[in-house]
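Supplementary Note 2. Why include the ligand at all?

Several targets in our set were suspected to adopt different conformations when bound, so apo predictions alone were not considered sufficient. For every target with a known small-molecule partner we therefore ran a joint prediction. The input for 4'-deoxy-4'-aminopyridoxal-5'-phosphate is given below.
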Amino acid sequence: MISDIAWADGSFVRCDEMSLSPATHSLSYGTSVFEGIRSYGGNIFKCEDHVERLRRSADVFGHTVPYSNADLTNLCYELLKVNKLADAYIKFLVFYDDSDVSFKAQGCSSKVVAIALPFPSKSASEPYRLATATWRRAPASCHPYQAKTSSTYALSYLSYHQKAVGYDDVIFLSTTDTVCESSGSNVFFIKGDDLFTPTTDLALAGITRRVIIDDLCPRLNVSVTERDISYTELESFDGAFLCGTAMEITRISQIDEIRYKTSALVGALATEYHNLTNRRSAP
Ligand code: PMP
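The joint prediction is reproduced in token form.
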């Protein structure tokens, strides 16, 4: 359930007083971009990285975001304050208005809005069971995977609903049978004490993924390799996990018929991540 007050193009507004034209360009043509950000105890984790990614996503679709990263960061804190939230998920959306009903968006203005919802930090969670998605990820030349655009999630939606029974999520493969990511998280595999993760050619360059590679692995003295991982290789791994802003670090217990055991390394990474996100620091 989203909180009562949203931020829209410079002002705080009650969500129940907002409206959207049915001719909104981005509703028809998938030209909106968004960002999901977490606050832990009132401290927003990696806020600068998220607002910077929002800007890069917006740039891909030619959106204008007339606010500095500092403005966007400040409004995130204001949004938490007006909604009296400490542990929260903040979602930005940038979309084209209704000035052009054709796909060209000629004369359309970009709208920038943000909402928040209560989102408690989980210290432990049930492992995820994944099924491979019925839809494949198109080659990198066919889709802007580094923009967090709504159109990427159309296949997440379709695939999840086609394979949801008995599974928690889907994992996407490329047209050459390499592993990409889940519907909304990056993925890592474990062999011995080493981690392996797909490159970001066909996956979002996740901020949590980066934290794992740059901060957590060096702390735990774990090596990590970014490379293509084929589907046939999956049964050779000892363990696996998903990671993302909402997902945090969640162990994978199964992909199709392949089972993965509990892993001390996933537990150690999840603890380090929890300590990092819940660390008290100035905004
Ligand atoms: N891949 C996809 C498709 C996602 O939606 C997300 C969530 N933003 C991620 C990966 C993980 O990214 P992050 O760690 O930046 O949340």
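The chain has two domains: 5-118, 128-277. DSSP finds six helices and 15 strands in the chain. Comparable summaries for the other entries are listed in the accompanying table.
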